[in-house]
Here is the input.
Amino acid sequence: MSEPRYISLRLRFIAAMVAMLLLVVLAFGVVAYQVVRRSAKEAAVARLQSVAQQFVQMANPGFLTARTRLVRGAENAAVIAALQTPSQTAGVAGILQELLPANNPLASISLRDASGAVVAEAGASAPPAPYSRADTAAVGPLFVASDTVFFEVSAPVRIGGATLGHVVQTHRLVAAATAIAQLTNLIGPDAVLLFGNLDGTVWTDMRRVVDRPPPTSGGREYDREGAHRIAASEQFPGLPLVVSVEMPADQALAPARTLTQTFLGIGLIVVALGAALAWWVGRTITQPLESLTHATEAIASGNTFSLSVLATGRRDEIGILARSFASMTDQVRAGIETLESQVATRTNQLSEALTQLEAAQKDLIRKERLATLGQLSSSVGHELRNPLGVMTNAVYYLEATQRDAPPKVREYLGIIRGQIRVSEKIVSDLLDYARIKPPQRSTVAVGPFIDEAMGRVATPKSVAVVKEFGGPPAMFVDSVQIGQIVINLLSNAVQAMEPDGGTMTIRTRLDGDRLAIDVTDTGSGITDENRDRIFEPLFTTKARGIGLGLAVSRSLARANNGDLSFESTLGRGTTFTLHVPIASS
Here is the structure.
C-alpha cells in the first residue's frame, strides 16, 4: 500500500490564512461598494431634484407673466370692440404687438372669435395650435410642428359674463443660454435638461424632440437612447408642464468605483502581509514538530544516543515542546487578533473617510448652490425691477384715466397692484440676499424705532398687539437693516396667525450685554422637520414668497454684530429673538 501524498502543514496554514483574508476583503469590498454606490446615487438624485426645482422656480414666473399680460390685453376695449364688431379691427394688430414679449422674437399672437377664426394677429408666423376655448387664462401643453416645439398661452375675452373669443399667444420653446450655463455649473457639462408635458406626450431637450424619460420626482436609473442615466423631475405648479434633469449614471457613481479601486489595492496589501505573517507563524509551529520527527526517526533507527537522550531528556524535551507549543499557540492567537484589529481599524478609517467625503460633498453642493443663487438673484432682481416699474405706472395711469370704469375692472387693477407689490418684495429679497451692504451703524432709540416699524406693517383687526418695552433705551445698529429685520418678523408673525387672528407681542429686554427684541405670535408653531431648515435660502412653507426673508434677516443681524434665533411650540406659537449691540452711554 503506497504512502499518502505528503502535504506540508505550513503550506496548508498559509493557504488557509490567505483564503480567509481574501474572503474578508471581498466581503468588506462588496458591502462598502454597495453603501457608497447608494450614497452617491442619493446625492446625485438630490442634486438633480434641487436643480429641477430651481429651474421651475426660475421659469414659472415667466409663464405667469405671459398669462397676466394676455389677461390685460383681453380686457382692452379695442380688443373687445373688434370681437363685437368684426369690421372695427383697426389698431388691434398694434395692441397685440405690444403684448408680445420683447425677449422672444419668435412669438406670435392672434385674436380669435368664439369659432376659432382669426380676427387679427401680430408677431412672427407660427404653426396652427390647438385652439383653447377655456373660460380662464391658461398655459397650454407643448406641441410639435415641423420638428419644432411650441406652447400656447391664451386668455378669454369676456363681456357681461359671455366669452366673445380668445387672445392666443404661441411661443417657440428655445434653450436659454443662462439656464444651460447654470445647469453646467451645478451638475456638470454632461447633464441634460428635459422639458415636457405632464401627460408625457411631448418631451424636448430645448433643441429637439426626445424620447420621454421616466416621470418620477424621486429619481431612478434607466436607459434612454442607449445610455444609462439617472434623473429627477419637478412639475410646474398649476401648469401641465414638467421639467426633468438627468445625468449619466457613470458620472454619478464615480465615487463608488474610486472607493472600490482603493479598497482593492488596500486588500491586496493586507493579503500579502497576512500571507507573510502566516508563513512566519506556520514556520514557528512546524519547526518543533520537525525536530520531534527527527528524534522519532532516530529512535526508530536504533540510535542509542538518541534513545539515551530521549530516555533522559524526554521528560524535559516534551515539557519544553509542550510549553513551546502553548507559546506558539498564544502567538498565533495574538497574530490573528492583531490582524483583526488592523482590519477593524482600517475599516473604521475608511468609514470616517467616507463620512468626511459625504460631508465635504454636501458642503460643496451647498456652496455651489449659494454662489449660483447669489449670481442669479442679482441678475434676476435687476432685470425684474424695470418691468415692475412699468407695470406700476401702467396701473396708476389706468386708475387715473378710468375713474368711471366698471367695478370689476377696478377690482382687477387692484389685484394687479397687489401682485406687483408681492413681486417687488420678492425682488427686494433677492437683491438683499445677493448683496448685503456693510452696515452704517449709529445710536438708535428703541421705542420710536419699533413704533415706526409697526406702522409700516398692515395689522388686521383680528390681531391684538401687545408692547412690553424694557431694557436699554438705545441700540448701536444700522437702522435701515435692523428695520428690515423687524418689519420682516412682524409680517411673519401676522401671517402665522392668519386667518383666525391672535395676539402679537413685541418685547424688548436686556440679555447679557446685548438688547433682545422678541416678536411672539400665537400661531400654529413650527414643525420639528422644519426647525433645522427655517433659515435656509429658498426654504418656505408659505403659499407665496421664495424663502429668502429669514435668511436675509439673519445675515443682516450678524452683519450688525448681532444674531437671530427662534423658539417654537407646535400649536401654541413662535418667538423670534433679535439680539443687537447696546449703544454706549
